[in-house]
Amino acid sequence: MPRGPRLDAPGTLHHVIVRGLDQQVIFRDERDRNDFLRRVAALAEAKHLIVYAWSLMPNHAHLLIRTQARSIGGCMRSLLTGYAGQFNRRHKRTSHLFQERYKSIVIEEDAYFLELVRYLHLNPLRAGIVEHLSALERFPWTGHSALLGHMPRPWYAIDEVLAHFGRGLHAARRAYRAFVAAGRPHERRPELQGGGLRRSVGGWEVVTVLRRGREAYSSDERVLGSGEFVEALYR
Q1: For residue 173, how many other CB atoms are within 10 A of its CB?
Q2: Ordered strands of the 13-19 beta sheet
Q3: Which residues pair with 69 in a beta bridge?
Q4: CA nearest 104: which of 133, 65, 142, 136?
Q5: CB under 8 Å to 200, separation ≥6 — which residues?
Q6: Cα–Cα distance between 199 and 229 in angstroms, integer?
Q7: d(Cα 170, Cα 26) in Å, to the nearest integer?
Q8: Which residue spans within the chain are E strands per DSSP?
Q9: Which band of pLDDT confidence, cut at 50, 70 and 90, is reported for residue 69?
Q10: What tens digit of pLDDT does each residue of 27-60 get?
């Protein structure tokens, strides 16, 4: 029997998407958002995971994280069970808060790390929660403001992200700001959010064509990366 993919090995980079059940709001106010981030911070400070990007939206949340000693499943159970229990107690409710399963996509780092940092941090602009990039810089519920030095987050891997943009803090922040501004803030990117870029030749659109043509290819919806990257996870 062929072995399954190694999707939860220590050091794996994940894009995690958490959604409210039936699209319900999971953050009603600032206190809720701070409680969620406090729990993320506790996992980061305990060295269970490293946080590279994040975005808290009204009915869902995105995290770009790397697991360390603890599995992604263990981290997410701790985060979501604790948060949902506190949310329900505070708001006097008893029903489920989240969809049954969070979505976790294993990322091919060299190809998609920076694209995902930008994509996650542009979420509030894309959703119309903020109107322009200058407002996004002061918006406290993504990692963008912390990367630019406006919001201290000592648990956040700011230096590791900015290291991709050059030496020297000020120069790296300028380069990062320009990189975000050069993105497509109003365009949805299903090939990033949905995961599963199966081959180096392209994303889901190409996979659909390949399926029609019966060509063999590597495919896994839980992975964002080239065919070679997918195959390596199964070895």
Answers
A1: 17
A2: 49-56, 60-67, 13-19, 103-107, 223-224
A3: none
A4: 65
A5: 226, 227, 228
A6: 8
A7: 35
A8: 13-19, 49-56, 60-67, 103-107, 223-224
A9: confident
A10: 999 999 999 999 999 999 999 999 999 999 999 9
- Residues 145/80, Cβ–Cβ less than 8 Å: no
Report yes or no: 35 and 81 within 8 Å, Cβ to Cβ.
Answer: no
CATH 3.30.70.1290, the chain: domain bounds: 13-189
pLDDT digits (tens, 9 = 90+) for 90-116: 999 999 999 878 998 888 778 889 999
Q: By three-state DSSP, how is residue 50 classified?
A: strand
Are the C-beta atoms of 128 and 154 separated by less than 8 Å? no
Superfamily of domain 13-189: Transposase IS200-like (3.30.70.1290)
What tokens does 5 get?
């993919």
**What is the rounded radius of gyration, in angstroms, for the C-alpha atoms of the chain?**
18
pLDDT of residue 9: 76
For tokens 């994940």, the residue is 14
